[in-house]
Amino acid sequence: MQYLIDDANLDKIKEVASYFPVEGVTTNPSIIAANGENVFERIKKIREIIGPDKYIHAQVLQNTCEGMLEDAKKLKAAAGENFYVKIPITKEGLKAMTALKKEGYNVTATAIFSVQQALISAKAGADFVAPYVNRLDNFTADGINVVAEIVSIFEEYGIDSQVIGASFKTTQQVHNAALVGAHAVTLNSDLFAQLITHPLTTKAIDEFEQKGSEFYK
Ligand code: E4P
């Protein structure tokens, strides 16, 4: 399963990428706005931090097909290789996904809340679909079940598109996404440290240090 950082804060990206084997970074317009810098400038800085081999998924803002193609071109120019353009699932978004695939872009369909939205986006050419787990959970709509059904319907029809679970708030949600076969997850920076932390690990390491200290000199 791929792990990506759902953030545009440069210090946080640097910190997480320094120890966690992440595959890249995802952003959306709200995340960019929270960091207060022009999106194209911020994407260039993120690329400098993570290097050329990691993935950047960055989202368009305009809501017409033509506008999305325009945004996609500028985002790709900023991000370079290993770039996925994130397109929300709408009528115009589907037109844009089809057009961008024809032009050779990698596409991530975003703001996915139902299995049909995922299936149709995949038919339009999306390489990844991004269901929003926690936002579904907040509607008592079982986000993980939506992820599981998308994974299984893609397998059923032999569809190559992959599922990138998004909008996580707890490590249990991340774990459940892994259990149902999500191909990737994108997580806010704070969840990474929580995923690798366990009080028994801390206790075990404390014991090693106390008992072994005299014998490692
Ligand atoms: C995914 O594409 C979105 O950027 C994101 O995961 C949404 O997360 P939120 O529900 O915490 O805003």
List keywords for this structure.
single chain; TIM Barrel; binds erythose-4-phosphate; 8-stranded parallel β-barrel; alpha/beta; 8 strands; 217 residues; globular
Q: What is the topological layout?
A:
Layout: E1 2-6, H1 10-19, E2 24-26, H2 29-35, H3 39-50, E3 55-59, H4 65-79, E4 83-88, H5 91-102, E5 106-112, H6 115-123, E6 128-131, H7 133-137, H8 143-156, E7 162-165, H9 171-179, E8 184-187, H10 189-196, H11 199-212
Parallel strand pairs: 1-2, 1-8, 2-3, 3-4, 4-5, 5-6, 6-7, 7-8
Helix pairs in contact: 1-3, 3-4, 4-5, 6-8
Bound molecules: erythose-4-phosphate.
Question: What structural class should be given to the helix and strand makeup?
Answer: alpha/beta
Shape: globular
Number of strands: 8
Largest sheet, spatial ordering of strands? 1-2-3-4-5-6-7-8
The H/E string reads EHEHHEHEHEHEHHEHEHH
* Number of domain units: 1
Q: What proportion strand?
A: 15-25%
Q: CATH superfamily, please?
A: Aldolase class I
Q: What is the averaged pLDDT score? A: 98
Total helical segments: 11
**CATH hierarchy, class:** Alpha Beta
Please tell me how large the radius of gyration is: 19 Å
Distance between the termini: 40 Å
* Largest beta-sheet characterization: 8 strands, parallel, barrel
**Ions and ligands:** erythose-4-phosphate
Ranges with pLDDT <50 over ≥5 residues?
none
What name does the CATH topology carry? Answer: TIM Barrel
